[in-house]
């Protein structure tokens, strides 16, 4: 069974279907008066509520291995059901739910009817060195492979395709394992809304700036005065709701979820960065703290009891990292957002003229490899030694490099030409559009001993 390619012409049909669906199933907005957000309730919402149309159901999840290439399919066929399910989880970057280890994956919300939906945890519940953490970027998510294989499975099982299946054939979900095309989702979806979030046909040709991003850790959220790589929008529960804007969710349904997202924001705000669980050379780290204070703190902030984070935007020409993300959101996109329900109709909550990327907080940086906003650098060592950064590399989904701090990986002289599309997506091509590993070469100005001390200090954050 092979993936089914959806002709571009069908995308228009899918849009018509979605627009028609949006006119049905109105739900009354939830009254927010005297509402007290609950972090515990927010966590359960992420686990158990489907806010967008289902990507899978148990029947498709159980049979999805039949869409794999021959060798992988043969191995799955020989496996017992438990082993086969483990193979499915490993392939797509899933881990078991802590409350139901034999049930649905943590990375998909399981609705009461058993349907499985993309959720915050799809990209923000990962594992490192065998330890699963909600809020950690999921560096193993294979979202493009998942949607392709789900579509092929439905076709083989003679199940009706869903609007998401057709849209997924038109909008890439991520070219490399561990990254997603997340920015384009919100840009595209808002083009189907007016400022009050009523579903309308787009006024002009769709803007589709395809490129991949590495998800940030959720524990950064509470330190931000403005969200996203370019710092264009102030934090709010409404900003978190952009991904709900699929046309099947009409205005009333989206607004009706608002209190849920007040809860979800409350949960995100209490997520803490994990502590480095391995040995630290305290004397070397102390030296590194001095290097950090002199060379890094002005952009990335200070840490400890009286630590402060400056939310500083570094001009693109200074930081020198890949500009695809910067170019993806145009000023007119920001303007539309600034006048909408998402920003509380307050243009002052949006920056229309950001000049670069925000230097991120570094809490728990040891756990957040790969580095740079596009995930192009596998370890902190390679971030500090730019001339050693690999050009073509493949991550090890299970192994952690305690010395260089980050992902263990293998390299190649060129991108592989053999193997399935899924296998090729495990390789990171830093020569591809949006995937450059250049820039942030400030550490190269330091001596090598200073850089090693700095690396040791970052383990303590």
Q: Which keywords apply here?
A:
461 residues, three-stranded antiparallel β-sheet
Explain what this protein looks like in three dimensions.
The structure is a single chain. The protein is α+β, with helices and mostly antiparallel strands and 461 residues long. It folds into 2 domains: 8-269, no CATH class; 282-320 and 360-458, no CATH class. Helix content is 34%, strand content 11%. The chain has 19 helices and 13 strands. The chain has helices spanning 8-22, 39-48, 58-63, 70-78, 81-92, 120-124, 143-156, 163-168, 182-190, 251-256, 258-269, 282-295, 297-300, 316-319, 324-328, 331-338, 380-384, 421-424, 448-458; strands spanning 96-97, 100-105, 108-110, 116-118, 125-128, 131-134, 179-180, 213-214, 313-315, 356-358, 392-401, 406-411, 427-429. The chain has a 3-stranded antiparallel β-sheet with strand order 12-11-13, with no helix packed on it. The radius of gyration is 22 Å and the shape is globular. 46% of the residues are buried.
Number of domains: 2
Terminal Cα separation, in Å?
48 Å
Q: Give the count of helical stretches.
A: 19
Largest sheet features: 3 strands, antiparallel
| SSE-based structural type | alpha+beta
As a whole number of angstroms, the C-alpha radius of gyration is 22 Å
Shape summary: globular
Q: Spans with pLDDT under 50 lasting ≥5 residues?
A: 1-29
Mean of the pLDDT scores?
A: 90
How would you write the strand order of the largest sheet?
A: 12-11-13
Total strand count, please?
A: 13
The helix content, as a percent range, equals: 25-40%
């Amino acid at each position: 069974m092979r993936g089914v390619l959806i002709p571009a012409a069908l995308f228009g049909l899918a849009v018509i279907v979605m627009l028609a669906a949006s006119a049905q199933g109105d739900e009354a907005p939830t009254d927010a008066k005297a509402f007290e957000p609950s972090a515990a309730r927010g966590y359960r919402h992420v686990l158990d509520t489907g806010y967008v149309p289902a990507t899978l159901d148990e029947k498709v999840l159980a049979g999805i291995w039949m869409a794999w290439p021959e060798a992988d399919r043969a191995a799955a066929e020989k496996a017992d059901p438990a082993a086969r399910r483990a193979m499915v989880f490993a392939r797509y970057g899933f881990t078991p739910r802590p409350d139901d280890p034999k049930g649905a994956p943590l990375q998909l919300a399981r609705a009461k009817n058993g349907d499985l939906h993309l959720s915050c945890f799809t990209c923000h519940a990962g594992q490192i060195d065998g330890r699963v953490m909600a809020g950690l970027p999921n560096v193993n998510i294979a979202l493009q492979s998942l949607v392709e294989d789900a579509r092929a499975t439905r076709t083989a099982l003679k199940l009706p395709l869903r609007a998401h299946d057709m849209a997924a054939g038109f909008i890439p979900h991520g070219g490399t394992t561990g990254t997603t095309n997340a920015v384009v989702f919100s840009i595209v979806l808002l083009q189907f809304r007016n400022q009050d979030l009523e579903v309308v046909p787009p006024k002009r040709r769709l803007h589709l700036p395809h490129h991949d991003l590495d998800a940030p850790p959720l524990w950064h959220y509470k330190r931000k005065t403005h969200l996203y790589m370019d710092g264009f929008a102030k934090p709010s529960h409404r900003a978190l709701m952009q991904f709900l804007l699929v046309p099947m969710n009409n205005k009333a349904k989206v607004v009706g979820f608002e209190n849920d997202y007040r809860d979800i924001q409350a949960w995100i705000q209490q997520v803490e960065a994990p502590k480095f669980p391995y040995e630290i050379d305290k004397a070397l780290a102390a030296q590194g703290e001095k290097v950090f204070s002199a060379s890094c703190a002005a952009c990335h902030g200070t840490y400890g009891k009286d630590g402060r984070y400056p939310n500083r935007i570094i001009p693109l020409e200074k930081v020198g990292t890949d500009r695809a993300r910067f170019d993806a959101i145009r000023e007119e996109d920001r303007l539309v957002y600034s006048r909408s329900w998402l920003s509380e109709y307050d243009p002052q909550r949006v920056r229309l003229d950001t000049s670069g990327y925000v230097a991120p907080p570094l809490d728990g940086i040891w756990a957040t490899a790969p580095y740079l906003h596009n995930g192009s650098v596998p370890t902190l060592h390679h971030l500090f030694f730019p001339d050693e950064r690999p050009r073509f590399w493949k991550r090890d989904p299970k192994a952690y490099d305690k010395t260089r701090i980050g992902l263990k990986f293998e390299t190649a002289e060129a991108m592989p030409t053999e193997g399935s599309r899924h296998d090729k997506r495990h390789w990171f091509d830093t020569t591809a559009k949006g995937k450059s590993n250049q820039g942030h070469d400030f550490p190269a100005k330091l001596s090598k001993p200073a850089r090693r001390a700095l690396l040791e200090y970052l383990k303590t954050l």
